[in-house]
Each structure stands twice: as C-alpha cells, then as structure tokens.
Design a protein that fits this description.
- By secondary structure, this protein is an alpha/beta fold.
- It is about 45% helix and about 20% strand.
- The protein is globular.
- GO terms for molecular function: FMN binding; oxidoreductase activity.
- This is NAD(P)H-dependent FMN reductase.
- It comes from Tunturiibacter lichenicola.
C-alpha cells in the first residue's frame, strides 16, 4: 500500500517529526511505501484556492501554489490511506494541519485515515484527535476506530523516531493492523466502483 503521512506542525521546536519517523518505519516494516508530507517543508500559504481551482491554467499569482500542490495531487491519487500525525495545540488541531488538509477534497474520498496524535503531556493529543475525527470524514477520509496517542513524546520517542517505551514498542500493532485492514478493504471496493 501507498500511505501519505501528513505532519502538520510547523513550530521550530516541534517533536512531531519523531512521531512521523516512527510511523514511516512501522509502515515500511510491514512492506508499505510511506511518503512524508511535511507542512513545515511545504510552507503552504493560508488557503485561498483549493487544488481543484488552480490545477488547470491558474492565474499567474497561483502558479507557485500549483507547483507545490501538483506533486501532492499525484501522491494522493495513488495513496491507499492517509496517516495523520498531529500535535495538540490549545486542545485543538494545529492550524497548519487543517490548512494542509483543506487544499484537497476529491483525492481523499473513499480512502481511510489513521490518526497518530501526540503531546508533551499525559493525554497524548487525544483532544486534537477528536476534532480530527470530525474534519477528516467531512473531506472524504474515513477514520479507523483506533487512535494511536503518544503521551510525553519527548520521552516516548527518540529524535530518530525509535520507541522508548514498552507501550509504544509492543502495543501499537493493533493500530497498524486495523489501518491495513481498512486500506485493503477500501482499495478492493474502489476497484469495483464507488457511489456516484
């Protein structure tokens, strides 16, 4: 399977890259191709026009945006699933994550998403995850039932994305098993056709 791993924190001292590295390693161990989509690297402007509005013959002021979004559109078109790696800012979704997601719509439809949330505290970003559960289906990404929270991320994952806790190292298998199941099931059904 091809998985787009969306990392939505743009803070200079973020720790989400640890979680993204861990997710990518876990997916690759299972034989999947995981591709990082990093909001900090993309530096997308605040949403003005969606991909569907700039993909064909955009005015000159949207040419750079079109160039940034075109590779994402290609990736998303072949993606079997999306893994959302989200911090929790003020009990909510980071603005850059929402901005990153909102640029696309049709590309997400009938593809599952899995939420990996994290924080420096004990709750592991679950309040942001609950808000993502409202947003993601609205743009077409079904969310799998399980979440993968990472509490105290600074001591749960190394800078290289290696799990430092038994919980993360040994008990995340169900989360990835479930994500795989949804990707396989939805890929098979997409091949048969989707509701119009």
């Amino acid at each position: 399977m091809v998985v787009a791993v969306l990392l939505g924190s743009v803070r200079s001292d973020r720790m989400g890259d640890r979680a993204a590295k861990w997710v990518i390693a876990e997916l690759e161990k299972r034989g999947h191709k995981a591709v990082l989509v990093d909001a900090a690297e993309l530096k997308l402007p605040l949403l003005d026009k969606m991909w569907k509005e700039v993909k064909k013959n955009p005015p000159a002021k949207y040419k750079k945006l079109q160039e940034k979004l075109a590779p994402l559109a290609k990736l998303y078109a072949r993606a079997d699933g999306f893994c959302i790696v989200s911090a929790e800012y003020n009990h909510s979704i980071p603005p850059a994550m929402t901005n990153l997601i909102d640029y696309f719509l049709e590309e997400y439809i009938f593809r599952p998403s899995a939420i990996v949330c994290y924080s420096g505290g004990l709750y592991g970003g679950v309040r942001a995850a609950m808000q993502l559960r409202a947003l993601l289906p609205e743009v077409g990404m079904t969310t799998i039932p399980s979440l993968q929270p990472i509490p105290s991320i600074g001591s749960s994952l190394s800078k290289e994305g290696v799990a430092l806790t038994q919980e993360l190292a040994e008990k995340s298998g169900k989360f990835f098993d479930e994500f795989e199941w949804y990707m396989r099931a939805m890929k098979a059904e997409r091949a048969k056709g989707v509701p119009a």
